[in-house]
Design goal:
Chain lengths: ~350, ~350, ~350, ~350
């Protein structure tokens, strides 16, 4: 069977059919390129309704770009960026933040992917000392790369610490929809409202094709951002096709339905496996990822039937991601095969 | 009437319906992300049939990125890149080449957008002298930003000069289809076969939605290119949707039909205006652009009805671009309005 | 004879004995490193007396660094820097400005090394247009690389143009002492007083050993400059030895005596050769350089006896530089040999 | 008393008188600038005798520059550099390595400033995976920033691990003389002979004025290094004054006498304090630094009389550095004051 649904990554899925339809619908005649078209204006308007009129929003192509350019907007190369060791910007962007911003990343080992004020404080020194990269941004991921979710209170505490030190709070929201669904909150309630300054707002992992948004909760930060985006090679000419996706994604709670479903599938997988003694779930299942330690020899056998990634070779830990299009039967079949392999 | 077709730019057009259809067709189930899917493998295979088995091909998001990353693959920051003053890399990428590669751009003023060996030679000095940025790449655009087209012989002469000096020849092919249609040649006959080393192969200006290809005619150049692409924020997760576009674009001569038509519309516009004494066509119409000097006061009047750009304020020179979806009636109406405005 | 004085460059000379003495005098005990020592504070104080209390002054190692870091203080990578094609930043720094600032250099061909408002205006367009590198700085060299000197009025006109366009005026003053001696003016009268915003104040070509100063005439520009200097690898640990040089250089008119003498030697060389028909002086001799076209075959013969550089191979043009330690007898002997070689 | 000798840093000291004398001695007439002079050739020759004929050696201005440019010679921006958290490149260069090389630094917390193969292995994964910065260099400091010294065997073990993984070993030798004196070995025996590929060879902290050397033990690494140095703003025009310092420094064992003395003074300080119960020496005293925990309230009192730095505010840990010019009476007086303050 072609293109079997697996548990490798939420970006192995395709595009939600309604989003594809929306892209088709804007494929009419000519529009101004590079974002001055009516579809883009409408999509930005819609996003401002969600995030607030005082925000500025820009579309780019990828999540990596959203992170890097958002960070670049508030840094100079002599700044440092504090993040979790497991964060995407530290681990999975091939050094794009360092290359583009010139900044130092200060990564902190954390078990569950979540930074805390105490962990951050370790790096809050050397201000005003010219030999030291100046701490400028704290970056957190919501939901984290380990499938956990920050509460608004946890985010507020980090934001307060950052702001007290004249720093910014950046959020990588590649899976922000899964976090919102998990928390049962509007996006704003755990971003701008609790002190996030810059947000990478992703949709590709939740049913979109391409295109991410950067939400700046402080409009002073974006005076020159258009040049950063263009020089960063992230200005789409036929922008309407990104805008159409966001417009549809944010309408009729499509984002929420997709994310809620994916989260539900992750919890289903967790519950299917909770009584299997050889499988140890290693992280709280709060979004759409399940992390588990399996007997080493089982992994390649299982990968013959379902595609997924080993997370930590040394610990024999794997990562299973669910997606908007994961079916309950997929999960059940997967759990069944695991159990069979484990005997 | 919504989204009127104008003459502003070939990227103001939408997406050819067959390409949109192809994108829809691959929206099935899960595939490996980041380019290891079957659709991408097939598209790369197809492109290798066109450009040669010794080539390496990579997809990125934009034309600017194709240029910048292609140049980065063969340079270190102490190199210089020789280009026409009017080239996209020099004029329209907000300094992305300098920022990403660290290199110096040596731009040469040329009337028709085309470099010549003689013009390039001016900058071929200072080799081995550590105070001097080392000339490393010549970059040409085909078709040029001024709507002209290099002959294979002209390209070969530049390639020979570059190679004699241990340099590379880069081609910005954002409108390469228009050039191929104009020349009546296969892509290879005026790229790899005559000495082009790196090609930005564009489709967005000719009916695609997004995504460009970089063709390396020398596989030694790409050993580490995958890292450059990722760090350059140009690795698409759902790559299949770029690949599907290229697959369709390069099938059944769709690219050629689109480009031939756009070129034809440009020539039609030229012929409609050739007897209007107040309109002076300033460049040969060899691809899909028409450059013309108009009476200054006519321009804003005309822009009220059709969207297009002034090219050179001081000379009262405008640029009119045709596209795959430009209709003959659009051109005739446009010409009629011009004539009416001119009295 | 060892280490014969030649006409290759003013940095082929050694160090004025009084400056070496001053360096010796501060070699006493321990002082705080990195510029917080009493000698540095005193030197900065002295320079502020010369340039004004509203200035900020920083020491770096080289002229290239002074230029690059001074430019970096007022730019972001999406900016462009307008300069003469023959300027040191464009021609002789191996792309250091592009690499460090990320900016585009817009170079203008000029016969005598001097920019003019008209020449600059050509590049003053595309403001606010995100595809275009934003013009941000005009950089001029005083005295120029071609031995000519701007009048204060010429500088003021360029400064006014820059400021009207929300841009800065940067001056590369590697040979500013020669310019001041030539004009008979204090440094301020043709820098801060006429609108220069950032000045590379050099001494190495006029009798110092190493170390250059950056003078910022607007203190708002230096809020974070200390980080730029450190990250730019230009913070000297034993700073007192740079400071001692500047202190002595700027005392008892040593800088002026040195520069006046060098200028005088250049004029002597000019006058010695003015009646030699085969030697064509190509630039006004306003500082310490003489540019001349010689019969091609004479050049290597002459170089056997005196070390100097060919400036433009194609034109058979050479550059002869005089220095603080050039003797009148050196010049006369040089002129005599030239005449003999020419028959 | 002016410029009292303290324990703040070995770069608070001045210049050894013989080195100053050597600088004076080369201040004769004209020499070719930028390193082609006879003094530089002689100094490089001398260093090759020490490090081997297969080495390439280049002078730069500062230790930061030696580190950064040496690392840049073997990296591209998608590489990562593994180092100790306490290393100078990570902690004290204001992000210069990230800014110039574009690379990611992977820093490892280590108690005594020394990396071990086991600690390094943690970061040796993700090879060939394009999302991951590719590990390329291990950088160690000898003597470390914590006053400890690697044995040749320890270095060899790290070098072997690096080379097995197709990586390079870089050594920051800002205090390499202190290490050599401590080990009683020639420089080569614990650098090139045990697998170091690139060495920052410092002298400024041991009696020189400015100027550091980069020693490449593999000449393939330097093919284009001259451009990196120039573009890195580290090419001295009057190079002879750096070369003269190295020539003298490496003659008559001056480097060794200076370093041995400084080390001896550190051990003297250690022994003077070893019976003071309130002072806890926290690191082995193997070079010229003494690290100690003092009662918090004693520190500011002590700093009133002697200048030195707090190393770790939280732990009440200070750093005392000795220098080539530290006198035994300085140390004894310092110890006496400490004891008095502690009652």
């Amino acid at each position: 069977m072609k293109n079997l649904r697996g548990f490798a990554s939420d970006n192995n899925s395709g595009v939600h059919k309604d989003i594809l339809k929306a892209m088709q619908d804007v494929n009419v005649g000519h529009t101004i390129a590079y974002g001055s078209d009516i579809y883009t204006l409408a999509a930005l308007e819609k996003m401002k309704k969600i995030f607030g009129n005082d925000t500025d929003i820009c579309f780019v192509f990828t999540g990596t770009a959203a992170n890097v350019l958002g960070l670049d907007a508030v840094t100079r190369p002599y700044h440092s960026i504090i993040c979790a060791e497991s964060s995407h910007i530290n681990e999975d962007e091939c050094g794009a933040p360092e290359k583009f911003t010139g900044c130092k990343l200060l990564s902190i080992p954390v078990k569950d992917g979540k930074l805390t004020p105490d962990a951050i404080k370790k790096h809050l020194y050397g201000f005003d000392f010219e030999h030291h990269s100046q701490p400028r941004v704290v970056s957190i991921t919501q939901a984290t790369e380990l499938g956990t979710v920050y509460t608004p209170e946890e985010i507020a505490a980090i934001a307060d610490l950052a702001h007290e030190n004249n720093m910014y709070l950046h959020m990588d929201g590649a899976r922000i929809a899964n976090a919102a669904a998990s928390l049962g909150l509007d996006f704003r309630e755990f971003t701008g409202d609790v002190g996030v300054d810059i947000l990478s707002f992703g949709g590709t992992k939740n049913g979109m094709m391409y295109g991410e948004a950067i939400v700046f909760f402080n409009r002073d930060l974006t005076e020159n951002f258009k040049y950063i985006r263009k020089q960063g090679m992230q200005l789409a000419s036929k922008m309407r096709f990104i805008s159409a996706q966001f417009m549809r994604y944010l309408s009729d709670d499509l984002w929420l339905k997709n994310a809620s479903h994916a989260n539900k599938m992750a919890r289903l997988l967790e519950s299917e496996l909770q009584d299997v003694p050889e499988v140890k779930i290693t992280q709280k299942v709060e979004a759409n990822g399940v992390f588990a330690i399996l007997p080493k020899e089982t992994i390649p056998e299982l990968q013959k039937e379902f595609f997924f990634y080993v997370w930590d070779e040394r610990k024999s830990e794997v990562r299973w991601m669910t997606s908007f299009d994961t079916k309950a039967k997929d999960v059940r079949k997967f759990a069944r095969v695991i159990k069979e392999l484990l005997g």
